[in-house]
Amino acid sequence: MTENSYAAAGVDTAAGDLAVELMKAAVSKTHGPNVLGGVGGFAGLFDVSFLTAYKRPLLATSTDGVGTKVAIAQALDKHDTIGQDLVGMVVDDIIVVGAKPIFMTDYIACGKVVPSRIASIVEGIAKACSATGTALVGGETAEHPGLLGPDDYDVAGAAVGVVEGDAVLGADRVQHGDVVIAMASSGIHSNGFSLVRHILAQNKIGYTDHSNEFGGVVGEVLLEPTRLYTGPLVNVLEDPALAGSVHSLSHVTGGGIAANLARVLPVGSWVEVDRASWSPNSVFRVLSDLAGTTLESAEGTWNLGIGMFAVVAADAASSVVAKLEAEGIHSWVAGRVSTAPRDFTGFEQGAKGVDGGAVRLVGSYAA
C-alpha cells in the first residue's frame, strides 16, 4: 500500500527543524535590543521607537537574489559565501538612497532540506548582516520536491532601512563639477553569471578544474563573495566633516557600469568615465580572453572592477577617497560631472525606466 504522508511526498519537516537549530546561533548574533521574540516566530518583530528621533523618517526597502551564481556553489558543494552575495545585493541597494539598513529577511527554496547546507547558507547571510549593521529578523526555507532537484536551491532576501527625509541621496543633489569616485569590486559579485557559465561551457572548463589562468580552482575563484559597501558608506555619510558632500551613490549591478551611473545623474548632465583610472580584476581578463572578446564588450554585463560609485562635491573628493580607503575600500576618481551642452551620441542615457544623465567610458584600461 502506498504511504500518503508529507514525508512520502518528499518534504522532511524534521530536517527543516534541525536546520533552524543549526543556524539559530548565527542569526541571534545579528540581534540587538530592537529585535523582539528571537528566532522561530511566524513574523519578525523590530522595535522602531528610535524613529521618533527623526524629523521625517523614510523607510527604504529592497529585494533581490543571487542569480545563477548559486549553480557554481551547488557544483562545488560550497555554500558559505552565497549568503554574503545575497546581503550585498540587497543592502547595498538601500545605502544608495542614503538609508541605513535596519533589518532583513531571507527565503531559501530547495529540492531537499539538507540541514548543514541550509545552515551554511544562513550563517553566511548572518555574518554579512552583522558586518552591515543589519538584523536578520526572520526567514523561510521551503522544500519543493519535484520542482527542484535534491541538490538545487535558490535564495532571495528583502531588507528595510531608514533615512531622514532631507538626507535622501539622488540625482537632484548632483551639480556641475561634482567628482565621480569609483569603489573597487572584489570580482564578478553576483551579476553576469549566465555569461560566465556560457563561456566556461563553450571552452569545456569545469568548475572543479584547476586553472593557472584563473589562479586556482575555477569555481572557487568565481565564488569570491560580493564586496559589502554599506558599513563603510554609513561611516562616510555619518562623518560630520563630510556632511552633505556625498550627493548620489550607484550600485553597479545588472546593466553594467555606464547604465547604473546614469541612473543617479540628473537629465542633461554627463560623465565620461576614464578607463585608464583602473585595471579590471584578472578574472574579467581571463573570461574575455576565453570568449575571444574585449573587456569593453562586457561593460554592460560585468562590473569590471567597479562595485559602487559615489558622486561627491569637488572640494570633498580627496577626503571621501581617504575615508573609504581607511574603511578598507580601494577608491579613486574616475570622472567628473558636467552640464555643458554636448552631443550624446555613444552615451548611455538613463536605465531601468529612469530618465537620468548620460555616461560613456573613454580611453583604454590600465594594464
TrEMBL record:
The keyword Transferase does not apply. Residues 58-163 form the PurM-like N-terminal domain. Keywords: ATP-binding, Cytoplasm, Ligase, Nucleotide-binding, Purine biosynthesis. Residues 176-342 form the PurM-like C-terminal domain. It is an enzyme of class 6 (ligase). GO terms for cellular component: cytosol. GO terms for biological process: 'de novo' IMP biosynthetic process; adenine biosynthetic process. It is found in: Cytoplasm. Its main location: cytoplasm. One of its GO terms (molecular function) is phosphoribosylformylglycinamidine cyclo-ligase activity. SUPFAM superfamilies: PurM C-terminal domain-like (SSF56042), PurM N-terminal domain-like (SSF55326). Pfam families: AIRS, AIRS_C. Its EC number is 6.3.3.1. Pathway: Purine metabolism; IMP biosynthesis via de novo pathway; 5-amino-1-(5-phospho-D-ribosyl)imidazole from N(2)-formyl-N(1)-(5-phospho-D-ribosyl)glycinamide: step 2/2. It comes from the Bacteria. It catalyses: 2-formamido-N(1)-(5-O-phospho-beta-D-ribosyl)acetamidine + ATP = 5-amino-1-(5-phospho-beta-D-ribosyl)imidazole + ADP + phosphate + H(+). Belongs to the AIR synthase family. This is Phosphoribosylformylglycinamidine cyclo-ligase. It comes from Microterricola viridarii.
